[in-house]
């Protein structure tokens, strides 16, 4: 077990490297697109593409069985945050039908060095995260929506990521597979 | 700490998003990707050299890039560093991570150069912050082995 932990650690990189790379990407997109709304869309799309692949890695590493309900999904997302970003967001604000919840991020490794200037108030800087969640859930046949309710960068008290269950994607399954 | 898988996937998306066909169809325009690497390297080296001693000379800096800087990014050092002592350095990485998952069959070799641009930018940015104006080019030798050539311009 001890050896395994060490092995896992050697797969870690400094969060500086990741957040600086991400920051440079956002900066380049702002130069290319100018309109913050377009940048938000691009970041979400990039996150979605990452999510499509990241879920494979998550399933392979954790041996996760099928989720029973959306609460189960929420727990898995929480543990994915811990695994990949080294933070543990808290799960709160469940809706009445248990199909919508919030993740509160106490720290956001992506935005460690970031302050938003006034002309970019509409930029959702960390919009890659909801994209990743949407992409990875889609690969396990869950259509979900994810968006930022609050963002520390915009002067809110915390960073709140809202995730909503839309529907189970059964029709898109290829024939002959369970 | 962050899982390196995330960086690998982000890098794939950087390549997919920022590399565009240039006017000359056979070549790709990697300038933007290189610039993203540059600004990342420029900032990153500042974080890494925070507690390091003052560098003796140019060679000392190149050794730092090959060992410490490379380790922070790729969890390994450059395997071989050669120089002509006149401002040209050749860095050899026998297992370059960003192409280590790409099949080495002939069909994909053409696609590989665009996976080096970001890292060329990283080196150029790091050197830039340390006061050297450099030209960095990369080429795939025999996948996943890569060679980066650094030419330092004396001004």
From TrEMBL, chain A:
<dbReference type="Pfam" id="PF04051">
    <property type="entry name" value="TRAPP"/>
</dbReference>
<comment type="function">
    <text>May play a role in vesicular transport from endoplasmic reticulum to Golgi.</text>
</comment>
<keyword id="KW-0813">Transport</keyword>
<dbReference type="GO" id="GO:0030008">
    <property type="term" value="C:TRAPP complex"/>
</dbReference>
<comment type="subunit">
    <text>Homodimer.</text>
</comment>
<protein>
    <recommendedName>
        <fullName>Trafficking protein particle complex subunit</fullName>
    </recommendedName>
</protein>
<dbReference type="GO" id="GO:0005783">
    <property type="term" value="C:endoplasmic reticulum"/>
</dbReference>
<dbReference type="GO" id="GO:0016236">
    <property type="term" value="P:macroautophagy"/>
</dbReference>
<keyword id="KW-0931">ER-Golgi transport</keyword>
<dbReference type="InterPro" id="IPR024096">
    <property type="entry name" value="NO_sig/Golgi_transp_ligand-bd"/>
</dbReference>
<dbReference type="InterPro" id="IPR016721">
    <property type="entry name" value="Bet3"/>
</dbReference>
<dbReference type="GO" id="GO:0005794">
    <property type="term" value="C:Golgi apparatus"/>
</dbReference>
<keyword id="KW-0256">Endoplasmic reticulum</keyword>
<comment type="similarity">
    <text>Belongs to the TRAPP small subunits family. BET3 subfamily.</text>
</comment>
<dbReference type="GO" id="GO:0048193">
    <property type="term" value="P:Golgi vesicle transport"/>
</dbReference>
<dbReference type="InterPro" id="IPR007194">
    <property type="entry name" value="TRAPP_component"/>
</dbReference>
<keyword id="KW-0333">Golgi apparatus</keyword>
From TrEMBL, chain B:
<dbReference type="Pfam" id="PF04051">
    <property type="entry name" value="TRAPP"/>
</dbReference>
<protein>
    <recommendedName>
        <fullName>Trafficking protein particle complex subunit 6B</fullName>
    </recommendedName>
</protein>
<dbReference type="GO" id="GO:0006888">
    <property type="term" value="P:endoplasmic reticulum to Golgi vesicle-mediated transport"/>
</dbReference>
<dbReference type="GO" id="GO:0005801">
    <property type="term" value="C:cis-Golgi network"/>
</dbReference>
<dbReference type="InterPro" id="IPR007194">
    <property type="entry name" value="TRAPP_component"/>
</dbReference>
<dbReference type="InterPro" id="IPR037992">
    <property type="entry name" value="TRAPPC6/Trs33"/>
</dbReference>
<dbReference type="InterPro" id="IPR024096">
    <property type="entry name" value="NO_sig/Golgi_transp_ligand-bd"/>
</dbReference>
<dbReference type="GO" id="GO:0005802">
    <property type="term" value="C:trans-Golgi network"/>
</dbReference>
<dbReference type="GO" id="GO:0030008">
    <property type="term" value="C:TRAPP complex"/>
</dbReference>
<comment type="similarity">
    <text>Belongs to the TRAPP small subunits family. BET3 subfamily.</text>
</comment>
């Amino acid at each position: 077990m001890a050896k395994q932990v060490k092995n896992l650690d050697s797969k870690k990189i400094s969060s500086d490297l990741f957040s600086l790379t991400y920051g440079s990407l956002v900066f380049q997109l702002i130069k290319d697109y100018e309109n913050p709304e377009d940048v938000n869309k691009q970041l979400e799309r990039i996150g979605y593409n990452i999510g499509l692949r990241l879920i494979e890695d998550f399933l392979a590493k954790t041996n996760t069985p099928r989720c029973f309900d959306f609460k189960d999904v929420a727990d898995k997302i929480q543990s994915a945050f811990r695994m990949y970003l080294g933070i543990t967001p808290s799960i709160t604000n469940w809706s009445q039908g248990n199909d919508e919840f919030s993740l509160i991020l106490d720290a956001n490794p992506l935005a460690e060095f970031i302050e938003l200037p006034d002309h970019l108030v509409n930029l959702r800087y960390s919009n890659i995260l909801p994209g990743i969640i949407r992409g990875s859930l889609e690969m396990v046949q869950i259509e979900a929506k994810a968006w930022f309710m609050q963002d520390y960068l915009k002067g809110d008290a915390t960073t709140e990521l809202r995730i909503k269950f839309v529907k189970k994607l059964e029709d898109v399954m290829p024939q002959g597979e369970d | 700490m962050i899982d390196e898988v995330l960086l690998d996937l982000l890098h794939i998306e950087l390549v997919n998003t920022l590399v565009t066909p240039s006017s000359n169809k056979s070549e790709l325009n990697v300038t933007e990707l290189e610039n993203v690497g540059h600004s990342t390297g420029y900032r990153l080296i500042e974080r890494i050299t925070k507690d390091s001693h003052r560098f003796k000379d140019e060679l000392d800096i190149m050794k730092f890039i090959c060992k410490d800087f490379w380790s922070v990014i790729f969890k390994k050092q450059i395997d071989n560093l050669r120089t002509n002592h006149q401002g040209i350095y050749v860095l050899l990485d026998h297992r370059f991570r960003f192409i280590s998952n790409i099949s080495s069959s002939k069909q994909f070799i053409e696609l590989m150069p665009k996976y080096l641009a970001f890292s060329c930018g990283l080196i150029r940015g790091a050197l830039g912050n340390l006061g050297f104006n450099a030209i960095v080019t990369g080429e795939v030798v025999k996948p996943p082995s890569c060679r980066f050539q650094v030419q330092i311009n004396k001004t």
